Every structure is written in structure tokens, then in C-alpha cells.
Amino acid sequence: MITPGKIFATERVHEDRRDWHNLRHMLPYLWEFRGRALLALAALVLAKFANVGVPMVFKEIVDAFEGQSAQLLVLPVSLLLLYGALKLSSSLFNELRDVIFARVRFRAMRRLSTRVLEHLHRLSLRYHLERQSGAISRDLERGTRSVSTILNYMVFSVIPVLVEFTLVAVILLSRYELVFTLVTFGTVLVYVGFTFAITEWRMDYRHQMNRLDSHANTQAFDSLLNYETVKYFGNERMELTRYDATLAQWEDYAVKSQSSMSLLNFGQGSIIALGVTGIMFFAAQGVVVGHMSIGDLVLVNALMLQLFIPLGFLGIVYRQIKYALADMDLVVKLLARVPEVKDSPQARVLRLSDGAVRFEQVSFDYQPERAILRAVDFAIEPGEKVAVVGHSGAGKSTLGRLLFRFYDVTSGCILIDGQDIRDVTQHSLRAAIGIVPQDTVLFNDSILYNLSYGRPEATREEIEQAAELAHIRTFIESLPNGWETLVGERGLKLSGGEKQRVAIARAMLKRPRILVFDEATSSLDSRTEQAIQQTLIEVAENHSTLVIAHRLSTIIDADRILVMEAGRIIEQGAHRDLLTAGGAYAQMWDLQQHEREQHED
Predict the structure, then answer these.
(1) All domains of the chain, ordered by start, with CATH?
(2) Does pTM surpass 0.70?
(3) How do residues 463-506 score in pLDDT, each as one tens digit?
(4) Residue 521 near residue 554 (C-beta atoms within 8 A)
């Protein structure tokens, strides 16, 4: 029979292994500045030598006064100067340690943050469609900060305490009776054991707080991201109620966490008080019987206080390190995620010549039980414009995602100039393709920045030429801030037509051989659509072009039109030929024409 105790013990062993795994994960970030780390460690040891030397010199000062009569008191100048020098040295080496180690700590944070962002960009589209932006931003913030926390506490708290323990043990064992060492380190062991036990019990509260904090942040982030939707339906109160309900749960765990911490602090204080009292009792007894001087009493008391002051913080340090390791675990698990789409070890750069594209018996599904594409087979010859139409859910947009290799096909293959796109690097593949998406999302930066994103190394003249081709240059130069005009988050300060023209210019600046228009005008009004459509026709010249369309009026000039239904191509041909055939395309055309006439009426 499996008892709860066994389950808990198993979970604890697993968690301890995770903690050690996470600590080992930090070592590569320290290796870059291993010389600095060792130098900082040397400064730390020197600081502790000076720190422990202070009470020893103070003992000699007290003993020097004790041996003199009241009439013949003489200042022990050399001892006083040594006392001051040790105090100064302790401070100097501590600050020197901080200065030397700062570069190590902050570089580790920088490296991890950069690596996490790089890994997030490597992860496949499926992960980014399923993730919660608010939660992951909070988790990453805590995770990268945890590296600094762990390094900070290890170098500035844990290692100094261990060095000080060692020095105090040497002094007590070499100069005083064994009982002083036994009481001192017996107290330390009880203190550490009590701290670890209570802290482990409290960890569940912290985990629950983290979970609820991330969840609340996600809710707040989503409600602000969907600000307009919230306003449309007047659901501000519902969003606040939902957010507050999560925070109420977080509050309960936070109160439990604080209450248990007070219990821990009281227990730690009690153990320290008992230990110091015991040591002082034995020291006072030694003075009474003449085995110890007043200076020895002062030294033992000073060593105890010097030992227990950092020990008092050790509980806090242990808790913070455990919390930091829990936070860091989120990042380590993220970095352990394997990208769904990866370059093969033999992947080579795409050799682009004519820009011919072929989908060869391509089948694809997001889940095995739901097929999206079934044996899709077609080609886009060099310079040809092929349009894909069909009802929602037919699999049209999936073609573009597969061409960009956001997903790998389930069966079949996609070829560009005869090369399977799974055999070439993703970077070279995507460099050859330009896209004008249905929903153009821009960075919250200037128009110039968003245009140059198509090719960051492009000159100002090339950017202006691309804007000219997209018929947006005149508009940009008419703005008060011109090219430096900020577009707002996701480009919300621009109209739909203006954003689409920016997207067209950005795609043209990239100088791709293959173009994809993914329902690029479906969200625009008729007048804007006609203006954009003419621009799309101009930029598509001499490009192999795939047009994914909903409105059939936008693709009547296509060389070939593919009609999709339930993931299959059911018709293909030129616009007039398909109308003459009187099939699915002709029915869609008649329906859209009827809807358009009704709208105009």
C-alpha cells in the first residue's frame, strides 16, 4: 500500500533532483567569467579572515586593560590600530567582492534572457498558438531574475557563512574546551534542520502563489489586449470579478505563507537565544573558576553573535534560494522543450533559381483525428499567379503555413526549385518568401522601423522605393512626424488599408522570389480593397505568387484558381473556365455577386 508519506518522500526526492539539475544548468553561465568568480571568492575569504580577526584583537585589547592597574592605564595603540585596520579590510574586501562579481551576475542574467528569447523564437508555431502571453512573460521575468538571486545569495550569503563557520570552528577547537564547539555547532545543526523542515512545508504555498500570480497576470493581460471587445459587450465588471477572484485565492495563500514565515522566524529566534545563553553560561563559569579571562568571555560572545547574525539570515537565504529554484525551473523546462520543426543535420541553404513551387500529394493534420489537407497536389510555375479559394475550414491558410514550414507535412512533400523544403535551412527558405497577411501586425515603433523590418540592412533609398511601389510614400511624408511616426501597439494608429500597404512595402523590400497573399484584402472595405488590389497586381509581376482568397473578385486575373473543399482540391482552372464549368466555383461566384448586389442596394 502506498502511503501519503511515501508519495511525499518520492516527490521530495524528485524536487531535490530538479534543484540540483537547475543549479548545474547555471554553471555554463559562470564559466565565461571563471577568473572573476575565483577572484571574488578570494576577496570573500580575505573579508572573512578580517571579520573573524576583529573579535580576536578586541579580546587582546580587553586583556591588555585587565592586566593594568587603574593608575597606570596605557593605551594599546598597536592593537587599536590593528583593530581599525581589520575593520577597514573587512569592508574593503566585501565591496571589492561585490564589484568583481557584478559583471559575472549581470552577464549571466543577460545570457539567460537572450537564450530564452532565442529558444522561444525557435519553438514552432503550435507552441505560440497555445501559450498564454501574460503567464509566460511573468514566468520568464521571475525565471531570469532567479539566476541573479541564486548567484547573489550563494556568493554573498551561503559561501561567506560556510567560511566563517570554518574559521570559528578552528578558533573554538584550538583555544577553548570542546563544550563550546559542541554547543555552538549543535545549535547550528538544530537551527538549520528546523529551518529546512519548516521551509519545505511552506514551499507549497509559494508554488500556489506563483501559479495564481501567473494566472491573474494572464487574465489582466488578455482583458487589456482585448480592450475593444470588453467595451463592445460592456463586460468590464465581469473581467474585474474574474481577475479579483483569482487574486482572492492568491491572497489566501499569501496570508498562509506570511503566517508560516512568522512561525519560522520565532522558532529560529528561540533556537539562537537558547544557544547564546548556553554558551554565555559556560563562558561565565570559566571566568569564575579562572580558566578564562574577561577577554575570552568577550571573544566567545562576539564569535557567537558574529556567527548567528548571518545565520539569522540563512533561513531567509534558504527560502529565497528555494523560491528562486522554483522560478528557475520554469525557464529550465521551457529550454528543455524540443522545437517541433527543426533543421536536419544535413540541411543546406536553399538554392533558388526560378522560384517554382510544387505541393506533391501533401496531407496534413493538427491532430490525427482531424485531417486538414488530403493529398493536395498542384504547382506554381515560375512567374505564375495561382489562387486558392474555398469556404472557411477548407485548408487554404494551412498551405501558406506549410510553405513557410511552420509545420511539417504529415505525408507528401513541398518542393521549391526541386528541393524538399525539409532538406534546406528554415532561414534560407523563409528568406525566399514574402508574405502579405490578412491581419498585419506591426511593432510599436516608427513606420520607418516597420518598413525596414523586411530587410534591416536596406538603405533609406531602397525603403522609400518600396514605399513608392506600395503607394504609401505620399501618405507617410504627409504625416507630422513623417517616417518617424509611431504606429502604436500592433499598428492600431493606422487604418486597415494603411497597414496593408506597409505590409506590401515590407514584403517588397525583402526582395523575395515567391510571394504569398493570405486573404490580404478580406478585412478591408470595397474602395480600399480595389486600391490595394491594384497594388498587389503590380507587385506580383514576375513573382511566383500564391494568393489565398475569400473574395473571388480579387483573383479573377489569376493564371489558375484552385477550389478547395474539406482539405481537397475539387476544381482548378482559369476564372472563365470555372464559371463555364458551372461547378462549386460558379456557385460561390453567384452567391458572392448576389451578396454584393444586396449590400449595394
Answers:
(1) 16-336 (1.20.1560.10), 344-432+512-601 (3.40.50.300), 441-510 (3.40.50.300)
(2) no
(3) 998 888 888 888 888 988 889 988 877 677 788 778 888 888 88
(4) yes
